[in-house]
Amino acid sequence: MVQEHDPPVDPVFKSSLRELKWIFVIWLVHFVWVVGYCYAFGYPPPETPLTTVIGMPSWVFWGVFVPWIVATLVTGWFALTQIEDHVLPDCSPAPEISRADKTEGTDHE
Amino acid sequence: MSEGSTAALLTFAGYTISVFVLAILSNRVGKGKDFVGEYFLGSRGFGVWAFALTFAATNASGGSFTGFPALIYTHGWTLALWIAAYMVMPLVSMALIGKRMNQIARKTNALTIPEVLRARFDSPAVGLVATSLLIFFMFFYLLAQFKAGGIILSTLFADEPLFQSAVSFVSQTTMNIPWVNQAEPDYLVCLIVFAAAVIIYVVYGGFRAVVWTDVMQGIVMFLGVILMLGMALWQVGGLEVATRKLAKMIPPEHGMAVLSTGSIADSDQTFAKGIWLFDSGKVFRLGELATLTKGKSSTEPVKILKITTPFEVEELNAKRISGKIPDPGLRVKVTEAEPYQYGAGQTGNYVSNPGPASSNELGFLAIGTAISFFIFWPFAATGQPSNMVRLLSFKDTRTLRYSIVTVAVYYSIIYFALIIIFCCARVLMPGMEIAPDQTMPAFAAQLTRDAGIPWLAGLLVAAPFAAVMSSVDSFLLVVSSAVVRDIYQQHVNRNAPEKMIKILSYSVTVIVGVLAVLAVLNPPQYLQDLIVFATGGLAACFLIPMLLSLYWPRMTSNATIAAMLGGTGMHLGLTCYGYWENQTFKAYSFLGVNPFIWDLIGSLGIALVVIALGPKPNRDLVLKFFHDTSASRD
């Protein structure tokens, strides 16, 4: 799609795409941790004795509470150090594209 | 007039005054700026606290303070897993599209979500389809929130003599007005008060007032939750005690019973919903108003709830003996018992998954449902236009970054605290299964009364009211902006003067609000299901098209329309099939998978097919949105 003489890729697009991929990874890691741990330890057979950590059932502590704290710390780290800052455009109205240029299917790619 | 009830009225009065003050201030700040940009987007100038709290408050709708507490109370600790995806929700819903969408909106001067899509493809058709679907789904959402506002207020004012006078006046005034006279008068009064307050401050202050009031509402919610957490833990004796007691609890039993006095009644007697009934050591709670008519010794069968946890039965009997709970002296003959389908007669269900359930033999949260919710919460939130539009309003990327952290910390505290609070409520306040949606106000009243500070109940109850208000104002503005900006300005009069746009914006906001009020005078039977329908529908319609539009240069206008219609079509199809299959207004879970995931697959699938078969994207648009054209000019 990119042609030889095209201007460089938009830096906001480039960094946003990279961040999007990492956000999916962060979500997936927590998904596996929370659902995996809770499935293994949070669905005990009837009459299983209750074990608690700081007052909550141990499956809540290790399967929800700890990952929640980790997720908050990771969110903080990611937002403060990994998301790139950019100067966003001013809000002046964009020039209209002429109808002649708008037909889809022009020789692109 | 009780002290708590006066406090509630004063709190509401103080709260409403604050809201109007903020609206007046925001109107002054907005003067002299471009009207449309200011009214619908606050001139894109919001910093960290305003942006973070408006995002957090809008997302935490009335459900967080009415439905969620009810679920925790009814099913116990399993709700921690149910809501767990909120741990990544701020990151996903704000960072996935925030920076990129804000950039494109600024580049094209777009103020609404349909406008962003229209500008991205320079296609009026894309904008029109997006606007139509947005208004369609959003209106359902608006209805549900208006109804919630009316209900919360009627709970708040129930014991007020002034309120009762207003109810009787309205009842007499509206008795001959068709449609309106079908509404319960107390609900009607509260609905009108609530709607008038919201419409006035939105019209007067616009988006800036909405954001500023969201900030105040976010703070009220936070303070309310923290105060309740402290009082609940103190009164229950610590979290360890609460969890150990929960582990010993047995789900109660719903049923029907005939109540009798043992003698013929010489006049009509009524027994209020919620009173306790004691018979031969057993304890019941009355689930509806019961009437003993003159000349009879027993009532017709009425709803009751049988308490089955031994220590609760002991405590309630002890309170009866000490006179803390009145005993109406009725005999209770159970005619119909409906034990929980999962967890009946067993201990340990409130501290483990899947949690007790009265109408599902698999329990409340089977593992498949837990998986679905971990996908649904963050991605459905990302696809909500009311959230997306906030992502157009931050002033720079630094604001976005710091706001993500703020919302993440805010949600961690609020939602985990709510789980702990209402697990404590399950231990401290038995029998709320008769009216689970009243759990929050009832527990606030009990906590403050037992702590000897009943006046504080007003502040605590203001939290759910703030949550509903902050959602309603946002939806109202999203719908009216869709009409004014995306329909009138785009398709009727592109060069309309600012005065005309101003009048139209105010009028549309008022008309949409009034229409919503008229529609919820007699809420449809399946209103709660309509909320789920609207949330899922909006995400199904907008998430995939927006993601592909922002991140894939090959995305085309045809594919965007197809993805919106594909997601919507799948959502409507599964909902219709679910209705046909189960006679309930709930989307069908094909292969046991959450319908939302099928909606996304449908939306993505059809977009890919159209892209593969259709024309290539416009080169100028690709250059404009995916390349740094300013660099080439330099």
Any overview of this molecule?
The complex is a heterodimer of chains A (109) and B (634). Chain A is mainly α. Chain A has a domain at 16-53. Chain A is 51% helix and 4% strand. Chain A has 2 helices and 2 strands. Chain A has helices spanning 11-41, 58-82, and strands at 52-53, 56-57. Chain A has a two-stranded antiparallel sheet. In chain A, a hairpin with a 2-residue loop joins β1 (52-53) and β2 (56-57). In chain A, α1 (11-41) runs antiparallel to α2 (58-82). Chain B is mostly helical and 634 residues long. Chain B folds into 3 domains: 3-239 and 353-520, Sodium/glucose cotransporter; 252-339, no CATH class; 526-634, no CATH class. Helix content of chain B is 66%, strand content 6%. Chain B has helices at residues 3-30, 35-41, 48-59, 62-65, 67-75, 78-82, 89-95, 98-108, 113-121, 124-157, 161-174, 185-236, 239-247, 310-322, 367-382, 385-390, 397-428, 439-450, 457-492, 498-519, 527-551, 557-582, 595-613, 619-626, 629-633; strands at 253-260, 269-271, 276-279, 282-286, 290-292, 302-306, 331-338. In chain B, the strands form 2 sheets. A 5-stranded antiparallel β-sheet of chain B has the order 3-4-6-1-7. A two-stranded antiparallel ribbon of chain B has the order 2-5. In chain B, β3 (276-279) and β4 form a beta hairpin. In chain B, α1 (3-30) packs across α12. Chain B is globular, with a radius of gyration of 26 Å. The N and C termini of chain B lie far apart (74 Å). The interface between A and B is large, with 73 and 83 residues.
Concise account of the structure shown:
The complex is a heterodimer of chains A (109) and B (634). Chain A is mainly alpha-helical and 109 residues long. Chain A is built from 2 helices and 2 strands.
Structural class by helix and strand composition of chain B: mainly alpha
Order of neighbouring strands in the sheet with most strands of chain A: 1-2
- Molecular shape of chain A: elongated
What name does CATH use for the topology of the largest domain in chain B? Sodium/glucose cotransporter
Strand order of the largest sheet of chain B: 3-4-6-1-7
Give the class of chain A from helix and strand content and strand pairing: mainly alpha
Shape field of chain B: globular
Oligomeric status of the shown chains?
heterodimer
* Arithmetic mean pLDDT of chain B: 86
Q: Can you tell me the CATH class of the largest domain in chain B?
A: Mainly Alpha
Nearest-angstrom radius of gyration of chain B?
Answer: 26 Å
Give the biggest beta sheet of chain A. 2 strands, antiparallel
Q: What is the helix/strand order of chain A?
A: HEEH
Approximate strand percentage of chain B: 5-15%
| Number of E-state strands of chain B | 7
